[in-house]
Amino acid sequence: MTFNLRYASDTGANTWAQRRPAMRDLLTGERPDLIGTQEGYATQLRDIADDLGGGYDYLGLGRDGGDQGEHMAIFFDTSRLSALRSGNFWLSETPEVPASTSWESSRPRMVTWVLFRDRRTGKRFYAANTHLDNVSENARRHGAALIAGRLAAFGPLPVVLTGDFNSPATAGSEVHRTLVDRAGLRDVWLTAPVCGPAYATIHNYQALIPDGERDDWILTTPGVVAVAALMNTYRRAGQYPSDHLPIQARLTLP
I need a labelling partner for 68 at 20 to 30 A (CA). Which of 89, 159, 209, 228 fits? Predict the structure, then answer.
């Protein structure tokens, strides 16, 4: 699953306190093996970990360094996946410097990655999770190119990339072209033989837009087979858990 959680707020409409029960229902009902999350604050992530129960863990730093700011955290079911090593890098000209920015990025942007072993099969794979800039197209293009290079450096193991790319998954998107056409990743929404109904993934708590812009993606390296994909439209008493729809996919590793 890839899921922009919408950062926790305690004022106005759709506060975290209002949304948390719907988030709990959705995540505990689906119980994905792997969840790439965006925008989560540290306290919010701890709430989600508590709601998921002791069978889950998560990894990732805040984009402002340490525990500060929004996280690109990766949650995982510890009964299915074992984390072997992990790391973080920032989408800038100095990727190892926490909170660094470049290319007119409106704020720090980053990637969290984890090398996993599947406890059932023994197979290993990388998961990477990101959130590209919502303002600067230049930052999105450079960030996508940096991600492509870093993923290639992981070597021959399969990779699953989740994220909010703030770009439409269309042929006209430079970010999509960089990661799919040039880097050779596969967009599971386009390759899965079975998909649920398509909507704009950013709905802002309003009525869903059929066949709208898909800014949230799950990409994989060739060889990973997407069996099915779905946009989860769950609401609890009319309350969406986030202003984004999560996208889920069932994947088979080579």
Answer: 159
